[in-house]
Amino acid sequence: MKIRGFLFLALIALVAVWAFTLPGDYGDKDEVLMQSILSSMNKLHYEPLEIDDNFSERAFKLYLESMDGSKRFFTIDDINTLEKYKHQIDDQVSTANFEFFELSRDLMNKRVDQIEGIYKEILDKPFDFTINERFEFDEEKVEYAKDEAQLRDYWRKALKYRVLDRVVGNLEKQEKAANGELEEEEKEEEKKKDKDEKDVLDMTFEELEAEARKDELKVHDDWFERLSKLRRSDRLEIYINAVTSSFDPHTNYFPPKEKEDFDIRISGRLEGIGAQLRVEDGDIKVIRIVPGSASWRQKELEADDVITAVAQGEEEPVDVVGMRLDDAVRLIRGKKGTEVRLTVKKVDGSTKVIPIIRDIVVLEESYAKSTILSTEGTDYKVGLINLPQFYADFTKTGGRNCAEDVDKELHSLIEEGVSGVILDLRNNGGGSLNEVVDMSGLFIEKGPIVQVKSKDADPRILRDKNSQVTYDGPLVIMINSGSASASEILAAAMQDYGRAVVIGSNSFGKGTVQRFINLDRTVPVTMADVRPLGSVKMTTQKFYRINGKTTQLKGVAPDIALPYRFDYIDTGEKKHDFPMAWDVIEPIQYNTEFTINNLDKIKQMSADRVKSNETFALIDERAKLLKEERDNPNDNLNLEKFRKHQADSEARNKKYEDLGDEEIGGLMVTTPSFVIPSVEADSAQLARVEEWHENLQKDVYVEEALHVINDIIGSTTKKRRRK
Fold it and tell me: Most buried residue, 214, 254, 270, 491, by most Cβ within 10 Å?
C-alpha cells in the first residue's frame, strides 16, 4: 500500500538508523538477510513478537506445513529429528544460524529422491480395486508415517485413488458413448489423440487401468522434475516466510523477482510481450496472447507455440528448454521499446525466430469497467461499476489509478441518465489505501473514512477533504467473502455513513495495513555486494472503522445477506494461522450524508424475494451439500463402492448442474454509449464486453442488487446530520 509522505520519511529515517547498528560480521548474504528482516520486524511491525520459544513453536509449525503439510514426505523419525530444534529457531534466527534449515532441506531432498523411486515402482504394477480400504483426505487427521513402509503405503493409497478416479472417469465415457450421451467436446478430445494411441472408448478395463497409471506417472514425473529444479534459495524463501508469518499471516518476504510480480498485479500493467506461458512436458508453451499486447499486434506468436530460445535483440539466444518458467519469463520480459527474439517451434513442427518489440502490457481485466442495467416493470436505468482491485500507479510511470477511473465511469453513467449505481466489489482483494479514501470522496461531501493505528501511537484519521461529490444518488455495494482489505474499508465507511446499502455475504476480515520495506536500505553502503536482498511486506498498522470497530477477523456484515456457496464453511481471515485479533477503539464523530427511507421495508422486500427465488434456494442447498461432501469425501478405494458414492453424489448434484447457466428473464444489460466507440474500434475489447454482459445476465446476485436499488430509488432520500 502507498505510504503517505511523513510516514515514508519516518520509515526511511528509521531504516537509516538501524542500517548502521547491525552487527558487522555476517559471513554471507543469507545471514545479512535474516538479520535485516528481524531488525525490521522488531522496529516496524504492529505487534512485534518476542523472539522466544513461543515464536519458535509458531515458526516450526508453519515451516512444517509449508514443507510437507500433506505429510507425504517426512516420517516420524524425520519429525523427531527436526523437533529437536522446535525451541531453538529463535536462537538460530537471532544469530543467523541456518543449521535447522539445512537439516530440513537435506531431509526433504533425501525423501524426494526416495519417493521418486517409490511412485514409479508402485505405478509399474496394476492396482486391485476389489479390496475394501480407504484413503484419508483430511491432512489434520493424517499422521506422519511411523516408518518407510507406512510412508510407502500412504503413497500406494494416494496413487491408487488417483488412478481409480481416472479409470472411473473413462468408464463413464464408455457408458455415455454406449448410450449415445457423449458430449461433442469429449468426442473431439478422443479424436485429437495420436494415431498410435488406442481410443479409451474401445479399451478393456485392464487397458483403462494401465492407461490411467501411465497418465498418472507422467503427472508425477512432471511434478518431481519441478521439485528437482527448486534451488536452495527457493527453500530458504519458504523458511524465511515461516519466520515472518509467525508474526501474522500477511507479513511475508518477497525476493526481488517476487516483488516485481506483486507490483505488476497491483498496477495492472507490465512491460513485456503479452503472452501467457506455462510448462508442459518440460517445454515452455504459449497458452494465450493478451489482446492489444505487443505479441497480439505482431501477429506471429500463437497459442500452442513452444518457446525454445530467447535472445535480447541481436545477442546470442539463450536455450530455455527445461528451464524454470520464472527464469524464462524474466528473459522474455523487458523494458518498453527493446527487442526480444523468440525461437519457437510451431504446431506443424517448423521452427521460427519471431522478433517482438516489447511494450506496455495492460491487463484490462484488472481495471474498473461499467455498464447499464435495467429490469422489466421499471423505467429506471442503473449503472453497474465492476472494480476487481484497488489498483494504483505506485511507480509513477503513467499508469492508472482506480479512484480516477471510477470517477470517470461515474461521470459517464450520470450523463447516460442513470437513477442509481451498483459498485461491485465481489472478490476484490484490496490494494491501495489512498485510493480507498479518494474513491470514498466521490460519494460524500467530506469527512473521515478510516482510522489507521500504528503501534504505540494514537489512531490517524484519513479523511476525504474534497467537498466535491461526483455522485450523490442511490448506491448499493456488493461484497462477498473474497472482498478484503481496501474493499472492506470502502464498504464499511459507506455503511457507517448510511450512504450505501451493502449486499452479499460477510467479507474476508483483513483489517491490517502492510508496507513494503526495501531490505537493501537496511544495510550499509559498504555491504553493497549482498544486494539485492528483496523486500518484506510487513503489517505496520491496523484499520478501524469510523465507528471504532476494526474490520480485522470479523469483516463487514452486509445490510442484506444473500445465500452464498461458502455459507457453511469457514473462510477468510479466521482460516489463517495466527491472525491478529478483533478489537475496538474510540469512535470518531462523523456526519451521515443520507438516510434511506423505509430501509427496514427494503430489507424485508429483499428477504421475501430471496425466499421465493428458486436459484437462491438451490445455492443454499448446494452450500449445505458442499459442507457435507467436504466432511464425507469419496475415499473408498473399492471400485464398486467408489462408483456408488460417486453415483449418489452425482444424483444429489444433478439439480445444480445448470445453476447460474441460464439468462435471467427481465434483466437487461446495455452497453453504455460512451463505451461503444472503443469496442467498435477494438474487436478484443468487444469480445471482453460481450462475455462480461453474458455473465451479468445470468448473475442472480446482480439481479437482486438491481431490485434493491430500484426499491431505494422508489424511496425518497434526504440529508440528515448525526448529533
Answer: 491
- Every domain range in the chain assigned CATH 2.30.42.10: 269-362
Q: Which of 470, 477, 383, 460 is nearest to 426 (CA)?
A: 477
Domain with CATH 3.90.226.10 in the chain: 364-513+544-718
Coil/strand/helix, residue 220 = helix
Cα 401 from Cα 425, distance rounded (Å) = 16
432 vs 109: CA distance, rounded Å: 40
Q: Out of 2.60.40.10, 1.10.287.110, 3.40.50.720, 2.30.42.10, which CATH number does the structure's domain 269-362 have?
A: 2.30.42.10
Compute CA 617 distance to the chain's CA centroid, rounded to the nearest angstrom: 28
Tell me the average confidence (pLDDT) per consecutive run of 10 residues in the chain, 723 residues long: 38 40 55 92 94 96 93 96 97 94 96 96 97 90 94 96 93 88 63 60 94 92 87 92 95 80 59 78 78 79 87 88 79 88 82 88 80 91 95 76 96 96 95 94 95 94 94 96 95 95 97 92 84 92 96 97 93 92 95 80 97 96 90 91 92 88 92 90 82 94 97 67 33
- Amino acid at residue number 344: V
Nearest Cα neighbor of 62 from 252, 342, 343, 266 is 252
Please state whether beta strands 447-454 and 283-289 pair in parallel, antiparallel, or not at all (unpaired). unpaired
Query: In angstroms, what CA-CA distances link 270 with 273, 320, 326, 403?
Result: 9, 22, 15, 20
Neighbours of 15 (CB within 10 A): 21
Beta bridge partners of 354: 342
Distance (Å, whole) CA 55 – CA 37: 15
